[in-house]
Specification:
Helix content is about 90%, strand content about 0%. The chain has helices at about 5-20, 30, 35-134. The longest helix has about 100 residues, at about 35-134.
Length: about 130
């Protein structure tokens, strides 16, 4: 379907092409064998093809490429955020592991002290019993 506004532009071009075709051409273009009617028809065809490509090919393709670019940029941002969170978690994990090791060391030390006290008490009781037996 042709736009009615385009027809207003095509009619004068067609008249000019008709006049150019009927006149004897002694210009430079005529000496080279350029047919103005064919030239204008080719120019019109090119304009129509360019319009169709622009309207239904270039615009949707450009839109899809922009959407894809935005999606890729968002994915890159998400990847960077994930990497930062991973590093923060590694630091937190290391701190928690150090804290757990310190607490475990304190518990072990306290258990050893308690064990030594119990050992001393048992040795003292056994010496006391040994003294009683002697």
């Amino acid at each position: 379907m042709i736009d009615p506004n385009i027809i207003h532009y095509l009619i004068p071009i067609a008249h000019a092409a008709e006049e150019a075709a009927t006149a004897t051409d002694t210009s430079i273009a005529g000496t080279f064998g350029v047919d103005w009617m064919k030239f204008l028809a080719n120019l019109l065809n090119f304009a129509i093809v360019l319009f169709v490509l622009w309207k239904w090919v270039f615009t949707p393709v450009t839109k899809k490429l922009e959407e894809r670019t935005a999606k890729i940029e968002q994915a890159m941002k998400d990847a960077n955020n994930t990497e930062k969170e991973k590093q923060e978690f590694a630091v937190w994990k290391q701190a928690e592991m150090s804290k757990a090791r310190q607490e475990a060391g304190a518990v072990i030390t306290e258990a050893q002290v308690e064990a030594n006290k119990v050992k001393e008490e048992i040795l003292a009781k056994s010496k006391e019993e040994q003294q009683k037996l002697v």
